[in-house]
Design a protein that fits this description.
Length: 200
């Protein structure tokens, strides 16, 4: 969930799966902007063989469009993390309205959430507010904190010109660009956590 220009309420559409064409109610919050439909379609085409039954983590969730798209396509569960209390409540309301009991919302900073007791996830979405430059910090917490399954998939949205500092065991699988935004899918290499622990 990048924070750029605002989004008009009720304008977010789920584009695939059992909830296809469902609309998400979006609060009028400054700087709230979801991943565009075209990018979401590309991402979930990439994830199509892996998303059914996956345990997902949607960090900096915003409207929750990525995580709800995952639930629509058969993900087993999604943990949403959103620091803005109003956005988090709107997300809870959308989950309730769409009868998505497999989605849980934590209204807390992503970094603070990752300091808690970890549960490994198969798919993680990282799309923090660009101005906060949280990519390296969140990636390190995910990797070292036990939040990633052995062969987890990690989706990252970032400015196109930014050179990301990500864990060495995250192997780039696919990437694309939409204007000045880069969207990329990584896969965690087996044994990555053990290798990092030995270096510490």
């Amino acid at each position: 969930m990048n924070r750029g220009r605002g989004v008009a309420p009720g304008r977010i559409r789920i584009i695939g799966g059992s909830l296809r064409n469902s609309r998400l109610q979006v609060p009028e919050l400054p700087g709230l902007r979801p991943t565009p439909e075209r990018v979401r379609e590309t991402l979930f085409n990439w994830l199509a063989p892996m998303i059914a039954g996956a345990r997902c983590l949607d960090l900096c969730a915003g409207t929750g469009a990525l995580g709800i798209e995952a639930l629509s396509r058969g993900a087993a569960s999604v943990q949403f993390v959103e620091r803005d209390a109003r956005a988090a409540q709107a997300l809870r309301d959308n989950l309730l309205r769409l009868k998505l009991s497999a989605g849980q919302v934590a209204a807390v900073e992503a970094g603070q959430f990752l300091q808690g007791a970890p549960q490994p996830h198969d798919v993680v979405f990282i799309d923090p507010p660009f101005a906060l430059e949280l990519w390296a910090t969140l990636a390190r917490q995910l990797e070292q904190g036990g939040w990633l399954a052995a062969r987890a998939w990690v989706y990252v949205e970032s400015p196109r010109a930014l050179a990301l500092q990500l864990p060495p065991g995250w192997q780039l699988q696919r990437e694309g660009h939409a204007g000045e935004v880069r969207h990329a899918l990584y896969r965690r290499a087996p044994g990555n956590a053990a290798a990092l622990a030995q270096r510490a």
